[in-house]
Give the backbone structure.
Amino acid sequence: MPKPSIRFIHCADLHLDSPMRGLANYAGAPVEEMRTATRRSFSNVVDLALEREVDLMLISGDVFDKDWPDFNTGLFFANQLRRLVDAAVRVFVVSGNHDAVNKISRTVPLPKNVKWFEATEATTFVDETLGVAIHGQSFATDKMSDDLASRYPDAYAGLLNIGLLHTSLTGREGLEHYAPTSADRLTAKGYQYWALGHIHKRSIIREEPWIVFPGNIQGRHARELGPKGCVVVAGDAERGILSPPEFVATDVARWVHLTIDANNLTHLDDLATAVQREVQQSVLTAGNRPLAVRLSVNGRSLLHGALSKNPEQFRTNVCAWLNEASSGNAWLEKINSSLAAPMDLEVLAKRDDPFGILLRRLNALGTNREAVDQIAASVLSELEQKIPVELRGELLGRELGTEALRLARERLLASLSMETPP
Ligand SMILES: [Mn+2]
């Protein structure tokens, strides 16, 4: 008789008690509710483990966001894991860069069903009854430039082999900080499943073997978008992993980015309808979760003049639309408007007045790579001291020069549209 299959939950990057960045700045944000969001999402992961009667829970690093301010963070984690003891769920954990051994100064005793892998060497836990071998190693320090996986043992014959690893999965050993390795090197170990952590966006890197980032369990800012949670997986020693990992959302609030194409919209009411349709769709997808909305409005539209003349009024309108469409469950994080004036640019560029001359000059610059690079460099040197380090990556390069030119062109067109209303 074949052995029953093993079921496990794979999660990562819990970042328990991580703050929701900048939330207090947003009018109407449920700050108190969000304060506990990472905890409530993890509690949902534990609920799911009990509901699905899994055998194992695998946590691939960054359980904690940083050293705890007091013992409550650790006690919360231990209490949740204790709920799994009675159901005989075994828990396996590796530390990541955020909770590397040298970063966490306090400790809380964890229940006996928990194995937290050592940071000194790769170790393996074998459960003969389940027919599983689980390999793992923790980060000793927050910068780990060794390829940890290269020292994991080869697969144990006749068992389902699972590797737990916190890694960026890119880069060369000695040069990158997050246990650099590659999918090929992981594959060479002969395991059936690699339970990875570190990348907060969920992704399946490979299916043979399964190499999986489940993503973090709770979006914490506007760049951690969409549903967040964990994956449920089934497999056994004979057949390996039986079906694609099933994603289950456990998050308690969501960040979404809505994009509106305003090209054919002429009245504010049209825009309201378009925005509200998108918001309602997101609310449906998100269930009852609070939503933080970033709104992008693009295209050429007669609305351009009104919106650029009074951005505060526009912002207030959007907040009200969101409120109405979500029954108060969505709040506005930010508006990105790249709305442009609906003008016949070709005709304008032929005009023989300062507008025409300036527009022709801007157009010519836009096709001159060297000029664009120079503009990018000068904008950068001006900005460099002012922008947060984490945003610089997004702004670098030629795109910045192109964007500066686009803004200059739009400013020119906006002033023209105020002079002669369309
Ligand atoms: Mn992380």
About this structure: The chain has a mean pLDDT of 88. Residues 338 and 407 are 9 Å apart (CA to CA). The pocket of manganese (II) ion is lined by residues 13, 62, 96, 98, 198, 200 (CB under 6 Å).
